Every structure is written in C-alpha cells, then in structure tokens.
Amino acid sequence: MSIQTVKTDLVKNTTHKVVIPFYIYAALSFFVATILLFCSANSFTQHYFQPRTLAITHTMALGWGTMIILGASHQLVPVLIEARLHSTWLAFLSFILAGIGIPALLISFFAFHFGWVAVTGALLINGAVLLFLINMALSIWKSPNKNVHALFILTAAFWLLITTIIGLLLVCNFSHPFLPSASLHYLSLHAHIGILGWFLLLVMGVGSRLIPMFLISKFHNNKYLWSMYGLTNGALLAFILLFILQSVSIWYLMPVSFLFIALILFGRFCYLAFKQRIRKNVDEQMKISLLSITMMAVPIIFLAILIGFVLRSGNQGYKEILAYGFSIFFGWITAIIFGMTFKTLPFIVWNKIYHDKGGLGKTPNPKDLFSAKVFKTMSLTYLAGFILFLVGILIINSILLQSATVLLVITSVLYNWNVMKMLLHKPLIT
C-alpha cells in the first residue's frame, strides 16, 4: 500500500463538513478540561466523588474522547467497509445533539444540581449516541464488505449507548431516587461499561486497522482480532454479572485476567505490525500512538491494586481510584488521540483543499499542514504533566499537582494551535 493510497482511503467517502466539527469540539473540550483541572488541582487530594472531579471526568470522556471518536468513526467506517456513510444528516444531527447536551450535563455536574438541565443534557447525549449507532449499523448493513474492525466499532457504539442510558438513570436517581441503591453504588458499573465497552473496544478495533495502515505493514491476523474481541466483551459481561450478583472482590480477578490477556494480544498485534512494516522511519505521531499502547497497562495495574485493597481491608483506596481514572482519560486515551489526530486530520484537510487541484502544480504533503516542532513540544509537556500529576495524586502533593496542571494547560494550547493551523491552512501550489 502506497502513501497516496492511504491518503485516498482516509478521505474518499465522508465529507469533511461532517468530520471536522467533531475535531474542533473535541479540541476545545480538551482545553476546557485542562483549565478545570488547573482550577481544581486540590480536588485530587480528596475523595473522588465530588462536583469538580465529576465535571472534569465527563469533559474528558464525552467532550474530548467521545466527540473525536464519533467524528473519526464517520470517516473511518466507510473506509473499513468500502462503502459510503449511510447518512450525513444523521451525523450532523448527532453532532448538534451531543454538542448541546454535553455542556448542559457538565454545568450540572459542576454545580452539583441534577434538575431539568441535567436530565435534558443526558437525553440529548443519548439521542446523539442512538443516531450514531443507527448510522453505523445501517452503513455496515448495506455494505457487502463486512469485517471484524467494523464489528468492533459497532459493538463499541452499542456499549456506549448502554453507558449513556445508565448515566441518564443515575442523573434522574440523584433528584428522584427510584433505584434500589444510591447513584454512587452504580458509578463503577457506568464507568466500566464506558471504559471497556466503548473506549477500549473501539481503540482496539480502530488501532488494529490504523496502526498497520500508517506503518504500511504487511501484518494481519484475524485470530488475534477475534480473540481480542471475545476476551474484551467477555471481561465486560463477566464484570456486569459479578456486579449484579454482588460477588466478593476476588471474583473480579477473572474479568481483569481476561482483559489483561486481550491487552497482551493487542500489544503483540501492534508489535508484529511494527516489525513487519515497510516504512522503516516512524514519525513522531506514530511514536506517541505506539507509546499509548504501552500506557494501557497503567490503568490495569491500578485496577489490580484496587482489588488488592478491597481484599485486604475491605476499603477502596481513593488515591488509587483517582490515579486509575486519571491514567485512563489523561493517559492512554489522550495519547492515542494525539497520535491519531495528526495522522488523520492532515489527510482530511489536505483532501478538502487540494483534491480538486491535482495537476495544477506541486502541493504540500499532509504532514506539512501542521508544525512538527509544536507537536514535539506538546508531546514533551504532555508526558511531563501526566507523570507529575499521577505522582502528585499518589503522594498527595498539592504543589506537584498544580505544577503538573500548568504543563497540561500548555499541552492543550499547543494541541489547539496545531489543529487550528491545519484548519486555517490556505492553498499553496507551486
């Protein structure tokens, strides 16, 4: 596969008008999340269940991670199934509903008031996810070329809908209790369906396609992919069953072991794709994407520690829970978004500007649309900020936490600057 083929594959189906708004929204959400983090660093020395940590977590989960994945999926799924997106209007409507619903919900979390604004926000988000799921399902159904990567994305979208439905029920339960237990009891169920079913399953499905594509690798192994799919869904179903049965903590080691094996297989898949690559030089974007794969082990380590805490003392370590959540949303999810943003968005923008100008002169490469120096600086401030903040949580050091948030704010500014540089690019033909 040539570089030009990769470019064509990534941009040939869905209009940029559908995809780019999601990227912009996500970039601004990341900036907002880091500002909230800067203003709320001391909250991470306290219990995890409080307004500011809830607001930051959902800004990262919905505004940052989910929105950029929704946008990228509208571009990627047609490539995977070699067919057009079923409906651009459903995609637009999904963006509008989520774009309105997310801030309504986040404001409610920050104010810790779960009235009609929170319920309306949650309903709009559910509507956006439902439209996305329908759009993906119909696109795949109509295509004669169905594959396991598309199944990963479709299944992940289903789990996302389950996550948002549970979230809606929890929001309603805060102000008008109707569930058997308080909303706090169900938070781990809500969170892990989203983390494992939506984020992890989708990252595995998309990563196992994009990483070999951008490395221009010959490696492919369907057995690995089906095993990863089965183990990840099996781990999630086992967790849900154990939660419903209120099983003792030691049984939770079973889904954790399934998950650990799935991650090993995913790491092995990516390693073999790297070893069998045709392109020997690996750019900075791919390096940070590959780094994000190793960072997936960090939350698993904290999860095992948490289970150990419960088994030993019957109590949960709030520091470890905060570190667990932070390592997921500011760790591997953010790292893989960084890498994939600057691998996919340049092609989308390049196609938007230069697609109809072929043969009129020499055009710039997609990688020239953003600043490599800014990307490298962003990567360094991100890694430093992430590590310092994680250490700050574990040793409960406010000075370290506040210093780390400065680095993460700088990271978000640099990310937004580079994204806007691409989007505001003017045609250059020589």
UniProtKB/TrEMBL annotation:
Gene3D superfamilies tied to this protein: Cytochrome c oxidase-like, subunit I domain (1.20.210.10)
Domain of life: Bacteria
Keywords for the protein's UniProt record, in alphabetical order: Membrane, Transmembrane, Transmembrane helix
Transmembrane segments: 22-44, 56-77, 89-110, 116-138, 150-171, 191-212, 224-244, 250-274, 286-309, 321-342, 380-400, 406-424
Protein name: Cytochrome C and Quinol oxidase polypeptide I
